[in-house]
Design brief:
heterodimer; A: 164 residues; mainly alpha; Four Helix Bundle (Hemerythrin (Met), subunit A); 7 helices; elongated; B: 224 residues; Fumarate Reductase Cytochrome B subunit; two-stranded antiparallel ribbon; 63% helix; transmembrane (chain B); Di-haem_cyt_TM (chain B)
């Protein structure tokens, strides 16, 4: 499958899905019946975030980046980043019969988690600004910053499976 | 001590400097890759991965143009040769290979193959929620990139298994055959039959030239 085919595929990513996913985010507490749905929705959000992040980086690496699509992906990343803190309602961590990598630190250290989410939001908002300015160097810089904010958040707030 | 000619031993240089540097560099970079992946230092993980890619490429090239004990032609044997060696394995005075023995040859071929596969999978791998992806991931879809990432993780477990076997073999050779493989890989010398051959080596400049070419190639490939 050629590169252009991938490009056409990804352009068919429906924005409606993003909006629907955002609407599914629950800000309040969760009862037991909702937890599975919340965790699955959370995973779907992160996958959507990953897809848009990849699409953005792919577009940046082209010899002639399409600024329209860079703008679209940057806005979607920003929208998802803004909504991220609402994906972790109380009681949606481990121990409810559904697999999740969300660390209990999220709920035990809400201020630190909010700060991490804020760092990501700032980087994501900067991406939309850089996209609007068609500034590729700034975009690359803030894409790196966004990646670093993801990593630093994962280090504290995401558990990993291990061999022991 | 036996008076047989084969019992008279001398210190023979078996590993050239590039091969020894390669061995310990792979060990260090593999450990860095493991730690950085487990602790979400993905930028460093990528850099260490590029290093492993360069090292594996170097070793493959060095296997054709390096010193005698580094060359594949000097140690890769067919099934019959491996079997003959295995039958003598428990005897201390059995087959004595200068460099890699036929069983070790199998190990290094599998190790190099898995390391090469690991780096290739990593080049195309895509992180689940973005932030860090392989430098060639733009050529595959998100879903395919995720499949590469899963294979990257599965192949890593195979590598751990192989490293476990490698370490077991080192202990076995030390305890059963009385050979210290680790020190030989540090200083390059091992005790060998005095009547045995002395391997030839090539100029270090050849290694430097090969390493520099590969370094440039990897940089161009991943566009750091």
């Amino acid at each position: 499958m050629g590169f252009n085919s991938f490009r056409s595929c990804r352009r068919r990513v429906p924005l409606v899905c993003i909006s629907a996913a955002l609407l599914m985010s629950l800000a309040g507490g969760a009862n037991a019946a909702d937890i599975t749905q919340i965790v699955h929705a959370r995973k779907a959000h992160f996958k959507t975030l990953g897809r848009n992040d990849k699409f953005l980086r792919d577009e940046m690496h082209r010899s002639h980046p399409d600024w329209h699509w860079i703008g679209v992906y940057a806005k979607q990343i920003a929208a998802l980043s803004n909504a991220l803190p609402t994906w972790f309602p109380a009681g949606s961590g481990k121990g409810h019969g559904v697999a999740t990598q969300a660390s209990r630190e999220i709920w035990e250290k809400p201020t630190a988690f909010a700060r991490a989410a804020q760092r990501m939001k700032i980087s994501a908002d900067n991406l939309t600004r850089d996209a609007a300015k068609h500034d590729l160097n700034a975009l690359a810089f803030n894409a790196r910053k966004l990646g670093q904010s993801c990593d630093s958040c994962h280090r504290v707030f995401r558990t990993r499976s291990s061999w022991w | 001590m036996a008076n047989t000619k084969s019992a008279v031993r001398k210190r023979v240089r078996v590993w050239d400097l590039p091969t020894r540097i390669w061995h310990w560099s792979v060990l260090i970079l593999f450990a860095i890759c493991w730690w950085t992946a487990d602790t979400d230092h993905m930028r460093w993980h990528l850099l260490a991965g590029y290093g492993v890619l360069g090292l594996v490429t170097f070793r493959i090239v060095w296997g054709f143009c390096g010193g005698q004990t580094a060359r594949f032609s000097s140690f890769v044997r067919g099934p019959a040769g491996v079997w003959r060696y295995v039958r003598k394995l428990l005897k201390r005075d059995g087959d004595e290979s200068l460099g890699h023995n036929p069983l070790g040859a199998l190990s290094i071929i599998v190790m190099l193959s898995l390391l090469l596969l690991q780096t290739i999978l990593g080049l195309f791998a895509v992180n689940d929620d973005g932030g860090a992806s392989g430098p060639l991931s733009q050529w595959v879809s998100y879903e395919t990139g995720r499949r590469f990432a899963h294979l990257h993780a599965a192949n890593f477990n195979l590598l751990l298994l192989l490293i476990g076997l490698h370490l077991t073999a080192i202990v076995f050779y030390r305890l059963v055959r009385g050979e210290n493989l680790v020190s030989a890989m540090i200083h390059g010398y091992k005790s060998h039959r005095a009547s045995g051959e002395t391997p030839y080596f090539v100029t270090p400049w050849r290694a430097i030239l090969v390493a520099a070419s590969i370094f440039i190639g990897v940089v161009l490939l991943v566009r750091i």
